[in-house]
Amino acid sequence: MTPYAAPVRDFRFVLEELLEHGSLALPGFEEASPDLVEAVLEEAAKLAGDVWAPLNASGDRQGCTRRQDGSVSVPDGFIEAYRAYAEGGWNGIGVSEARGGQGLPEVVASAVQEMLHGANMALGLCPMLTAGAIEALAHHGSDEQQATYLPKLVEGTWTGTMNLTEPQAGSDLSKVRTRAVPQEDGSYRLFGQKIYITWGEHDAAENILHLVLARTPDAPEGNKGISLFLVPKYLVEADGSLGERNDVTCASIEHKLGIHGSPTCTLSFGENAGAIGYLVGEQGRGLNHMFTMMNEARHKVGVQGIGVAERACQHAFAYALDRVQGKRPAHRGGGECAISDHLDVRRMLLSMRARTDALRALALYCAAQLDVARHADEEGDRQAAQARAEVLIPVVKAFSTDQAVEIASLGVQVHGGMGFIEETGAAQLLRDARIAPIYEGTNGIQALDLAGRKLQRDGGRALGGLIDEVEGTARALCAAPGLAPLGEALAAGAADLTAALAVLLEQGGDPERGPDAVQAYATPFLSLAGHVLCAWQMGRSALAATAARQAGSDDPGRPDPFYTTKLASADFALRQWLPVGRAQRAVIEAGMESLVAFEPGAQ
């Protein structure tokens, strides 16, 4: 597999020229500076490229092993790579200094996360889940729980998991049946089974803290009867030392399409006396508390998809530049050439690059909104940013991961027959990427969250505010020399999204057919929104790249290749990729009658 080089230059472009390091101006980040951020990105790139990335292919081949006693070993080198990450303080990069972290903005933490997932997605899943556990305990844990567990999680010497679904439940968590029986000392004993638990058992950390959804004996049916419990792999003594092994066992590890280096486990709680657990937050509000963890995870799954897409880009570009096959047309000199000279291959390469850059810019824009929501002085600013982030998170999660699968698939296509051969590494990236549209809520669920809960709740106001900004960028492009065609394309996309939003709000608000309308239009609407919002970011990129060139970034007669590529990517994104997404308006306006009439059992 081609060596991985983190896209530090593009991170700097987004943070410095698109976001203008706005997060650093927020309260709490006074000690951070652009120079510090650049140094952090450079060091993270070394960890990702030199330590994590070389283990990606070998980890995929070796996979994980479950022993007879239920313990699980991870691939060779993973323990050392994870410890290098933890000992470097990377696990706490986005955690406040008061909790022992580095106290850097979410935009910086997200950039580092992308590097790690691009280098080694299977290994990157471990700290991603731990970050979610930190968020959940920081918001909902008791003072005692925070004092006992958070320092170790922030250090990375202990890791965290999220235990939601069960064999009979799937995505319907109202069917969770794991029991939590109260004990006289205030603890609980848990009995049940959880499936698809990422890094649920492993030998890379001293302890694992499982956050588990379960029901108390007198809990009502449905979502309101679910509570959240913390169940350590090893019980923790009063002095903080590790005690006896808890009654939680890895019953099996899944044999998966991809991410073979990540131990995905079925966990059994209470095969003997019961797994000792502790209530987190309020009884009966487990789903509410878990959503704190899930929102963190959903944004990071989108970032994860972008990381794999970037790796697929680098892999495909390297192959296309090296593989000699065919000849150039006579008007371009003729003669044998690398396949990168063929315009159809260039179309695939530029499509991969433009989409990956657009997805990255949107994910980091969303992270910047999270920074404002958490740190801005004014309550109104915090609320507005939170509303935007809540609309953007399902788009970042679903659209980025859907696109990552397409980008990785294009990477296989660029390789031709060699892409279908495991030894080249292109197939692994496609296999790994395929899980991201499924976990942390399938992408269909993300679309329903956006089209149903988020847009119906505020009548589309938060998204409408974003569309206003898209239209502003379109006007700026139309006024900029040479960029008017991009502005016209973006304005057309904004008009399509506005029209589709009106249909969704009107039909989704119908008392009788509203639920069907939301179900029918959710996925095409999210795709349309993703295309338009990503095109918006590429429009902003075109303006920034043009301004940089006008300010003297180019030597006379020697255009800066970064900005040249950025402008080509922006042109492709707005004039060749956006039209594909704009077609989703026609899908929505076509109505839902065929879906309602279709009877799958009548084939």
UniProtKB/TrEMBL annotation:
Which protein family is named in the record? Belongs to the acyl-CoA dehydrogenase family.
GO molecular function terms listed in the Swiss-Prot or TrEMBL record: flavin adenine dinucleotide binding; oxidoreductase activity, acting on the CH-CH group of donors
State the organism named in the record: Halomonas saccharevitans
What positions does the domain Acyl-CoA oxidase/dehydrogenase middle occupy?
Answer: 162-269
What exactly does this protein do? Involved in the assimilation of dimethylsulphoniopropionate (DMSP), an important compound in the fixation of carbon in marine phytoplankton, by mediating the conversion of 3-(methylthio)propanoyl-CoA (MMPA-CoA) to 3-(methylthio)acryloyl-CoA (MTA-CoA).
State the protein's name. 3-methylmercaptopropionyl-CoA dehydrogenase
Name the InterPro entries for this protein.
Answer: Acyl-CoA_dh-like_C_dom, Acyl-CoA_Oxase/DH_mid-dom, Acyl-CoA_Oxase/DH_mid-dom_sf, AcylCo_DH-like_C, AcylCo_DH/oxidase_C, AcylCoA_DH/ox_N, AcylCoA_DH/ox_N_sf, AcylCoA_DH/oxidase_NM_dom_sf
Domain of life from the UniProt record: Bacteria
In terms of Gene3D superfamilies, this protein maps to: Acyl-CoA dehydrogenase/oxidase, N-terminal domain (1.10.540.10), Butyryl-CoA Dehydrogenase, subunit A, domain 2 (2.40.110.10), Butyryl-CoA Dehydrogenase, subunit A, domain 3 (1.20.140.10)
| Names of required cofactors | FAD
Catalytic reaction annotation: 3-(methylsulfanyl)propanoyl-CoA + oxidized [electron-transfer flavoprotein] + H(+) = 3-(methylsulfanyl)acryloyl-CoA + reduced [electron-transfer flavoprotein]
Q: What is its EC number?
A: 1.3.99.41
Q: Name one Pfam family in it.
A: Acyl-CoA_dh_C
Q: Tell me which residues make up the Acyl-CoA dehydrogenase/oxidase C-terminal domain.
A: 284-453
